[in-house]
Design goal:
The protein is mostly helical. Helix content is about 50%, strand content about 10%. It is built from twelve helices and 16 strands. The strands form seven sheets. Strands 3-6-7 form a three-stranded antiparallel beta sheet. Helix 2 runs antiparallel to helix 3 and helix 4 packs antiparallel against helix 5. It is globular and about 55 Å long. The two termini are about 25 Å apart.
Length: about 425
Amino acid sequence: MICQHLLRPVPISMMAVSEVQQWKNRLEEHLRACTSFWLKHSVDTEHGGYYNNLDRDGSVYDTKKHVWLQGRQVWTMSRLYMERVELQTDEYYAAIKQGAEFLMKHGPAPGNRVYFCLSEAGEPVKLQRKIFSECFYVMALSEYARVVKHRGDEGVADTIYAEAVDQYQHICAFMQDLSLVGQESFAGADASHSLSMPMIMLNVICELRCYSGDPKFEDDQAQRCLQEIKLHIHLDREMVLETVKPDGSFLDTPEGRLLNPGHAIEAAWFIIDYNRRYGGNDVELQALALKMMTWSYKLGWDQTYGGIYYFLDASGRSPEQLEWPMKLWWVHNEAMVAMLMAYVETKDEAYWQRFVEVAEWTLKRFVDDGSQVIPETVSSSTVQPGAGSWFGYLDRQGKVSQCFKGGPYKGFFHVPRCLHVCSKLLEELLAAK
């Protein structure tokens, strides 16, 4: 994500300054409230780590700790510490430190793996046949190392960062042979390539570079990630496909027809962010990323109720995923970042209008202000408003589906990352006023 030292002024008209400032103030307020909610309710001072299964009011409904969310929270809190002076306090640092120590002590599993889920005290519960726990473990350690270095202990920071790089090398090996993480290959299965792995690895490489300061760290791998992402961009269809054949050609199955607009939009802004930081402002690469987000936003936007669909089928069939028409928090967070970043880069008013459109829809429905209609099946004892955090799951009409604020897949990550990155992008605009 955007590093503080990479901010740069972007000209805007004087007439737009007040609107940009209002948006910045608004998002900053939501970020403070969100951060306060998670600091108050998620930090486990007895066992270490963070509770991520939080109900609407912040109460813990399940003490299990999902490691990829532990890593995400360490990364997010560390990034906020590094880029927000008001959070550079001993109390806030202690909340990061205990989470990072819990993660480093209990996260690693045999075979150079990282567990997916732990008990409250850190005992193993589940190991997935995927690499995402490992990826967020690396990101967490890399950013936490920056915090430790900032506080004056460079030797310890270097050791933590070395562990992050070592785990990164294991992830690279897993990507070459997924049987190492337990994924079997069967004779009758379609050979395929997934968008998720190259895009997360590009993100991981960028984060590792933040500590090392080396803009060419793992450059060959970064270029491979970009080339693999391009396999999923079908110019003829004006679509970004989640799964393709290994050569990038269309796979005419439910898996191959699957569109995940939020994922494609996130991949697009990862590419733009990479290009801003390390790509030398490659015009062709930026143009491709802008196509990705524009196509995906237009296809994904629900013309009847607003918001972005979770899944779609490229041929217009019914997606197999029963949750396909739902509106999820992270999809809208990624769209906010992407559209604002596109506006900063292009000055094209269409991207600003899309940012405003998706941000207004998102803030009205996901932020818990006490006005939302709660499903009748939910017990009245669990529906007390929890000011400061967001719901994650809405039905197609935009009504709350699940009341909890955190679960196995939702923690302190997408919302604060979105609000922080958008705030920094708005800061770039204001710096040129």
